[in-house]
Amino acid sequence: MKSRTSFGRRLVPALVPSLLSILFLFAGSAHPDEGAAPPKGFRSWAHSKSTLVADKGSPLYGFHNQYANQSALATLRKGGEYKDGAIFVDSVKAVVETNGIYAPGPRVKTLVMIKDRKAESTGGWVFQAFDPAGKPLKIDPVKNCFECHQSGAKESRFVFHKYSE
Ligand code: HEC
Predict the structure, then answer these.
(1) 35 lines ligand 1 (CB under 6 A)
(2) Ligand 1 centre and the CA of 29: distance in Å?
(3) How confident is the model at residue 26 (pLDDT cuts 50, 70, 90)?
(4) What is the C-alpha to C-alpha distance for residues 150 and 86, in angstroms, rounded to an integer?
């Protein structure tokens, strides 16, 4: 037992640097793709809320469906600080009315918030927007996104919607 512990003590410091370099390699290779497309598979994430903004004059006009990855969902439900890597997607579709029935039409855009405490100028969230083909839209994350989220959702860590059972 004693020899095992001392072996473990010697092994851990030896392994830590190599594990760290593996982590850095992964982080490095993941970086160039970041923000190039909406998160893969978000349609299979938890669907946390739907909202219809029927006013055509509103900048938020459209059918909004909110999706949360596992980490974002856990915090949305229980409260507290969001962990880095938590992601929300607001999938925005056109509103098509037929005989009083309002249904989601073609995709208008896909909005994304990724928790990253390094994004200090935008409250620790990376804001991204994509066109219907999934190509990044040129946005000013502070003016086009954060200012509204900051003024309307400061108490809930800049996340507007509440989880709807
Ligand atoms: C005029 C205010 C306003 C602006 C500007 C705005 N949002 Fe939002 N956003 C909202 C509201 C309100 C909701 C919640 C809608 C609901 O409850 O269904 C929301 C929801 C979201 C969500 C789901 C998480 C949450 O906060 O509930 C994401 C992701 C999102 N917005 C991203 C963006 C991005 C990216 C931009 C900039 C391109 C942006 N938003 C600009 C008001 C705004």
Answers:
(1) no
(2) 29
(3) very low
(4) 18
